[in-house]
Amino acid sequence: MIGDPNVRPSDDQSELNYSSSISEIFTQFETRSSGLTGDESARRVQKYGKNSLIKPRKKSIYIRFLANFTHLMAILLWVGGIVAFIAHMPQLGIAVWMVNLINGLFSFWQEFRAEKAADALVQLLPLHVRVIRDGITKNIEAEDLVPGDIMVLSEGDHISADGRLIEASELRIDQSTLTGESHPVKKVADPWYDSGFSKIEYPNLVFAGTSVASGTGLAVVIATGMNTEFGKVADLTQGIEEEKSPLQQEMVHVTRMVTIVAVSIGILFFFMLITLTSVTLASSFIFALGMIVAFVPEGLLPTVTLALARGSQRMAKRNALIKRLSAVETLGCTSVICTDKTGTLTQNEMTVQKIWIPGASFSVSGVGYNPEGTITPDEVNIDSGLLEDLHRLCVAGSLCSNARLIPPDHETDPWTILGDPTEAAILVASEKLGVHYEEENSQYPRIREFPFDSRRKLMSTLHLKNSDQILYLKGAPKSVLDLTSSFMKNSRLYPISEDIRSEIITVNDFFAEQGLRVLAIAMKEITDDDQIENSEDVEHNLIFLGLIAMMDPPRSEVSEAVKKCHHAQIRIIMITGDYGLTAKSIARKIGIITTDNPHIITGADLDQMNDEELKRHLTGEVIFARVSPEHKLKVVEILRETGQIVAVTGDGVNDAPALKKADIGVAMGITGTDVAKEAADMILTDDNFASIVNAIEEGRAVYSNIKKFTGYIFTSNTPEAVPFILFAFSKARIPLALDVMPILSIDLGTDLVPALALGSEPPEPGIMDKPPRNLKEHVITRSLLLRSYLWLGPIQSLAVMSAFFYQYWTNGYWGKIFDLPAEGPLYHSAVGMALAAVVTTQIGNVLAHRTERSSIRAAGLFSNKMVWLGIASELVIILIILYVPFFQTIIGTAPFPAQNWIFLFAWAPALLIAEEFRKGIMRMIERHKISSSSGGIS
Ligand code: ATP
Asked: What is the pTM of this model?
C-alpha cells in the first residue's frame, strides 16, 4: 500500500533531532531499544506509506508507441503508400501502409517485452535492511522501513531512511551522494547542541542514499520515502535514461547505412527501368520501392534489444543478474577474470580442523556448524596448564566474534549461522570445548569493538572484567604477531623471541600449505585508565595465545568452470586477502595453478613494484595474496592498460573502485555489501565463480545469436533482389519473379518468427573453445556478408529462379527464359512457385544459421523448439498466401500442381547440406591452422 506522500511521519520529523537525548528520541518516535513490534510497524506502513521514492516518470507509452511509426524509414513508407494511391495502385498503397503498421507494432512489442524483462530483473534485486523488531535483528525489504524502526548499520550497508544514531562504533559514512564530498565523515550517537550546521552536517544523523564506509551503529528512523533528505533532491535526478549499448548503437548505425544503400539502389533501379525498359513511370517507382523495402532490415534493432534482454534473463536463471544490457555483450569479450577466493572459489563454510598453542597442537572433529565434536590433543600426555591455554584461546576467539549459531528447527535441518563464517567456525570449535558464547559474554560484557577491516586484516573487542578491561583480538597471523610482545604457555607469560616467532610462522605455513585458513588469537588486560580513542591506543603489546586453522573446501562446480575458462582462453587471476600458501594450495586443487612455481605476489610486494614490473609479472601464472582492495584496483588498471577485458569480483565497500574500474564488476549477492552491489555491473545470487563463467558463455551466445539472425535476414535479401536485377537487365524480357507484394509477405510475414527463434538459440557447442572476441569486432563482418550475399543468398536465388522457370517449363515453355507470359494464371502460379521456394530455402537457411562453425548435428536438430515453431509459422503463412483466394489476389499468386512441392522441398536440405559442407571445410582449415601453428605436433 502506498501511503499519502503528503502525510509527514510526525511533526517531529521536520524538526532537527540532533539535540535530543536517546530516551527523548525513543519517546518522540514511540519506540524503544527492542524496536517496534510487528503490528506497530504494519500500522505505521499504512499511515506513512512505503519507504520508496516516487518512480521517475518514464516517457509516455503513447509517445514511445508513436515513435515506432515516425522514424525515417516509416515516414518513407507512408509517403510511398501515398504515391501508390496517386499512381492508382490502392492495393499496393494499402499493403505498404500495412507493412508499416505491422512493422511498427512488432517493434513496439519487442521493445515492450525487452523493457518488461529489464523491469523483472530489477525486481529480483530488492534492497534489504537490517532492523531490530520485537527485540530481534531481522532482514526486511527497505521499502517496509517506518519511522521509529531501529536500523542496524555495518560496513558497506546502504542507508535507506534518515535516522538519528543511538549507538555508533568507529562509524564513518560516505555522504557523497548528498554532498559530493567523497571523504567519509565520522558519526557519533551523542546529542549535539550546536545548531549552526546545515542538517546534513550533523554528526548524529544519518541519511537515506548514503552508505556506511566503516564501523557499526544503530539508528532510529526519523524520516522515510520522499520525506528524507534524499527524497527531496531525488526529483532532480530522476528521469535519466539508460544509454544505448555499443551493440545497439552499432545496430542503429547499420540500419541507417543499409537504408541509405537500399534507397540509393532503389533510385538507381528506378532510373534503369525508365531508361532501359518500357516499364511505365508508376510501375518503375513501385519496383524501386520494392527494392528498398526488400533490403531495409527494419526489425533488426528491436530484435537485438530483445536478444540482449533475453540473454540477461537466461543469465538470471543461471544466478547472474545483469544491471545494464551492455554488460551482456561485454561479458562475451572477457579475457581475464580476477577473482576472490573465499566464498567465490570456496564454499565459505569454515570448519576448524586444527588448533595450535605454544607447546601443543589439537585436532578438532565434527562437520559443518553442528557444535558436536571433540578437540583432542595430538600428543598423549599434556599438561593441564596447556588445556587452560586452549580454553583461554577459545574464550578469546568467541568473544571477539559477531557471528551467531542458529540451532536447527527440525531434527533433519542443519545448524546455520548468522554473520561471518570464519567467526562462526570459531564459535563452533569453542562450543566443542564447552565454551559457550552467551555465558562468557554475560561474564565479560563487550563494551567496544574495533571492527574488522580488510586492510588491517584483524579486529578486536574490549570487554569488562570486574573493574578492569580486557582486549581480545584475532586476525591474520602476521598482522597479529606484529602487535604481540609476549606469548602464553602453560598459563605463564614469556616474551616473544625470534625463535618462537619463527616457530609460529612455520606452523602457520604448515597449515596453510594444506589449504587451511589460519587466524591468530591474542589478548591483553588493561588495568590503567588510559583514554581509548582508537584501536592504536590499545592494540599493542598483546599476548599471543595461539593459531586456529580452518578448512574452507572449494566449491564442487569450480574445477569444471576453471577448465572451461582455460579452453576459452580466459585467464583467471586469484586476488585474495588470505595467505599466499593457503591461496596457492586452493588454486592448485581447483586447477587455476598448473605449473610448479607460480608467482605469488603479496600486497607488500605490489607496493614496491612500478607499473612496468607489474605488467611483466602479469604474464605467467600469478596469485595475489594478502592484498587490500587498493591493490586489486591497481591490478585491474594495469590489466586494462594491456588491452585485457577484465571481470573482477568484490564484496566489500573498498572493492567499489575496482568494481567500477573493471569492464565487468561482479558483486557477491549473498555476502556482498550494498555499496559493492551498487558499483557492480553484475551480481551473483549464489556468490559462485562458476556462475561468472556461465554468464560469459551466455554473453558469447547472445552475440553469436545476434549475428545469426542478422545473417539470416540478410540472406533472403539476395533472392528478393535477383528477380529485379534480371528483370531490369533483360529489359523486362525475363518476367519479374517476385514483385513488391510477395517480398513484403516474406519480410513481414514468413521471416519474422524464425529470426526471433535464432535470437534465443542456446549456447552453441564449442562456443567456449574459442578465444574471447575482440570488443571492437563488429556484428556485420566481411565473412557474414560473404556468407549471406555470395554463398547462401545465391543458392537461394538459384532455387527461386529455377522454381519460377520450372512452372513455365512444365507448362509448354520448355527451356525458354525470355519472352514468357508476364501476366495471367501461368505467371501468377510461377510467382507462387518462386515465393514458395524462398520459404522452403529459408527453412534450410534458418537451420544453417543455427550454428556458426559446428555441424547442426552437434547442436541437436531439435534443441531449439522456437525454430520449429518458426518453420511451422512460415509454412502456414505460405499455404494461406497460395491457397486462400483473398490473399492470392492481394499478393498476386495462383496455385500450382501439388507435385511441384517435391521440387520445392528438395531445396531445403540442398541448402542445408551445402552449408554443412562449407562448415566442414572451415573446421578442417581451422584444425590444420592449429596443428601447423603448433609445429604439427599434436
Ligand atoms: P578473499 O579476499 O579471497 O575473499 P579473505 O576472506 O581471506 O579472502 P579478507 O576478508 O580480506 O580476505 O580477509 C583477510 C584476512 O583477514 C583473512 O585471511 C584472515 O586472516 C583475516 N580475517 C578474515 N576475517 C576475519 C575476522 N572476522 N576477524 C579477524 N580476522 C579476519
From this structure: 0.77
